[in-house]
Protein 1
Amino acid sequence: MRSLKNSKTWLFLYQEKKSSSLNDKDIILVSTPKSGTTWLKAIIFSLVNRSTFPDTKQNHPLLTTNPHVLVPFLELNLFLPSKSKLVIPNLISSSIPSNNYDSNPSLFSTHLPYVSLPESIKTSPCKLVYLCRNPKDVFISLWHFTNRLRPQNLAKNTMEESFEKFCNGVSLYGPFWDHSLGYWEVSLECPEKVLFLNYDKIKKEPFLHVKKLAEFLGFPFSLEEEANGDVARILELCSFDNLSNLVVNKSGRLSSGEENKTFFRRGEVGDWINYMTPEMAERLDSLVEKKLHGSGLEF
Ligand code: A3P
């Protein structure tokens, strides 16, 4: 497998494997929507597969494939036979042995809150990487995203109406604070099972967090790799500027219909300031502070 040079062939085999099973060594990225899932999918994919694809400038799957294709959503891509029926089976016990063409783990993702995860995932040795982001940027990113996806003939969601819903906990995968808190608590109880990451912190210290992530996943960087600039190369490959300017992400579409470009907007920390009034920011800050009080989790 490692000798495969053609990224399309590799991608095909990779997808075949993914659809057949979930193994104990597989990795699941969990995130609250609009917290940078696309970015972390790209980073995790590059980390885990770096010996297969050491060259980040040529023939790397991320150069021609959107991260959501490489790391599919369990609830959207793999276990949703029709758009009207959501099926989340007991993944581990119903799994079929994988074809073992490659020793690398398969990668999956989900937005499900911890309480809704199948028991099979909770009790399996699968590692979970959780990603969150400061709630004000999550809200602004979500507001833009939902409006970009809205059919042209429908009126846009207003900021005020969307904000009211967000503050009332009306979100697709449950209230923002419950989502983060659920995984935060498990990450404290079982740090070997759940790594809790924050978009804002990765942005601030990318090397530190990417190295920590690689170690958690069981793919630590050797001193030689570090000296070689391998961490920097992965960060560059997965950077907002690089990914958002690739043809596939400028003009492609996911099989579910969304344009790839909708997953790339500004990719910055603190963009909320350009949209929210000081009153809105204060309301959301104090709400989240109250909800997280005593947990040790802060944004
Ligand atoms: P903004 O709307 O604030 O720009 P998700 O991937 O969970 O849907 O989150 C989307 C957010 O992540 C968007 O935030 C998007 O621009 C940002 N993003 C996408 N790719 C990124 C990257 N490579 N680096 C940093 N941020 C990225």
Note: Residues 198 and 242 are 21 Å apart (CA to CA).
Protein 2
Amino acid sequence: ELGPYSHFMQKEIHEQPKALSDTIEAVLDAGFSAELFGPNAAALLPTLEGVKILACGTSYYAGLTAKYWIESIAGVPCDVEIASEYRYRDAWANPKHLIVTISQSGETLDTMEALKYAKSLGHTAALSICNVRESAIPRASELVFYTRAGAEIGVASTKAFTTQLVALFALAVTLGKVRGRVSDEQQAQFLDELRHLPGSVQHALNLEPQIKAWADKFAAKNDALFLGRGLHYPIALEGALKLKEISYIHAEAYPAGELKHGPLALVDSNMPVVVIAPNDSLLEKVKSNMQEVRARGGELFVFADLDSHFSESEGVHVIRTPRHVGVLSPVVHAIPVQLLAYHAALARGTDVDKPRNLAKSVTVE
Ligand code: M6R
């Protein structure tokens, strides 16, 4: 089953161009039409006043990315909450806010219970973004989008994450379309960007040898810091989670602007700092945050796309990701952080596919 790969995680990382193409195919066929999310969606989506996303772990980080898209492309307020927190608080509910759950397995207990709780508070419509057909969460939801990642076996979620991002991006554009905010021309442009996405992801996968060389250095460290801003902050979070989960290296992620509000105190020459720094509108801000790290002796490992114009210098290592792909850039930048975690774990000899203390599907509290 593993073919040329050593682990399911590695296989699943490399399956991403195909998983993405398969998922994108559904979007290309329907062209951002409400039916993508099920027969009830056409009546429902135009009446919405907001979106509330509930999920756990990596799926939660997909939700955090979606917030940027949903607010900027669709102009709809969006909040994202960890399912295990939401289910136990006295939450305020607006029935006109669509509940969106994100779950690879469709069986995560906390997400399922959060969905039931939302319903009990008066939310009438829920959309499930899920990778497993007919699992519990989509069965309990009015609207469904199935990602087409194929079975994900490694405990660390990889291809499920990037296909969730595509589903959420499609939701943002579709919401924008039904609200008259996204023109035909913009839709055509977004479809084109989706069409090119698997190619850019393949490009990122081809960076594996360079990333492995970095990972070998990380393997000797006890801690790591991940920084990103805007759309790439959730990718920093995802990179830190992947590294913790499978290599057991302590890792934290921050939006780079937060450094001076606390975490900068941790930075010294023993602290590798990974920066997700593509050429977006926040790049200059990220560059000045990087100087703050360098000034404290921190070693920087920067993922910068071809348009970011970074050069290597002492203590600053750069890997060039593909050409900037606009708002879909988080999908491309998920790849290098997955590969970094995978190779750091390999170098440390941990059980990559079955990390200690963790289960693939968390069906208990
Ligand atoms: O199946 P789900 O997407 O609901 O799972 C949620 C989390 O348990 C999951 O993403 C977890 O964080 C992964 N092991 C991360 O790699």
Note: The longest helix spans residues 184-205.
